[in-house]
Amino acid sequence: MDSNQKSIRNRIIANWATRIFLIFATIVMLYPFVWNLLASFKSNTEFLTDPFALPTALHFDNYVRAFVKSKMGNYFMNSIILVLFSTALLIVLVVPISYVLTRFKFFGSKMILNLYMACIFIQATYIMVPLFLQVNSFNMLDNRGMLGVIYAVLQFPFAIFVLSGFLRSVPRDYEEAAKIDGSGNMGVLVRIIAPIAKPGIVTVGMLSAMGFWNEYPLALVLIQSEGKKTLPVGLANLFEVQRYATDWSALFAALILVLIPTIILFVIGQKQLLQGISAGGIKG
Question: Please, which residues have CB within 8 angstroms of residue 269's CB and are 6 or more apart in sequence?
Fold first, then answer.
């Protein structure tokens, strides 16, 4: 066997090893979801008898109990409003910031960009206590608007990281041509940069919205009123209630309901999401 045949054989073995590993990883990732989905259609008796058996019938009433009796509709609406507000605020603020830090050189611009990059590693739970005291000093506890502002600001570092990488891939020729035609910096940003950077903006919006949708610690600490609580907090309350009520089927149905919006969001925007991540990762 010559070296060329050995190289082909090694490449085939490596490809099959990669495929087997990816199939195994996919099964490991999907198994909890499939198990949860099947459990959501079982009766409580079926689940307690054998948690791993298939359901004998589809009990859709589990979803009705999860949605109606546990006030999931109210939690859903609170989360939707908060996610829309936070995501819109983030996009409106972070696109100009990324554009300025990427395209304009001024004193301290590199330090500001590096500071944002360093803040990527700071999680909300690390600064929970000072954040709580600061919000309390403003008398803004139990305020969903303030929680939305905090969500957006904490997402700045990651959003700037992705967008700045994407904007570096945009040729300056478009901006120079627009300025020759009389456009100012704001006109260039709105009419030239934003449409070209749409995949990056969509990526930031989608990833941020998913993060806001699933965020739990800040919503638990900063929101106290029952009517203002978000879906993750409501789901945790439902878990506590159903654990003593032994209505496990309704709990599993609620978990599936929570996943539906993020799955729909991913299916709708997966093409631009992957484009944005690739461009931001390569240039970042």
Answer: 202, 206
53: Cβ contacts below 8 Å, ≥ 6 apart: 46
The alpha carbon of 258 is separated from its chain's Cα centroid by a whole number of angstroms, namely: 13
Retrieve residue 44's tokens: 């409580």
Q: Is 17 helix (H, G, I), strand (E, B) or coil?
A: helix
The single residue listed with the structure tokens 């654990």 is: 243
- The pair of structure tokens assigned to 193 is 């940069």
**Is 118 a residue whose pLDDT tops 90?**
no
How much is the average pLDDT of 134-148? 91
Tell me the helices (H) and strands (E) count for the chain, helix number first. 15, 0
Q: What is the dihedral of CA 83, 241, 74, 59, to 10 degrees?
A: 100
Give the pTM: 0.80
Give the distance between the most distant pair of CA atoms in the chain.
78
**Residue 149 pLDDT greater than 90, yes or no:** yes
Tokens of 28: 């490991």
- Residue reference for tokens 């006109």: 187
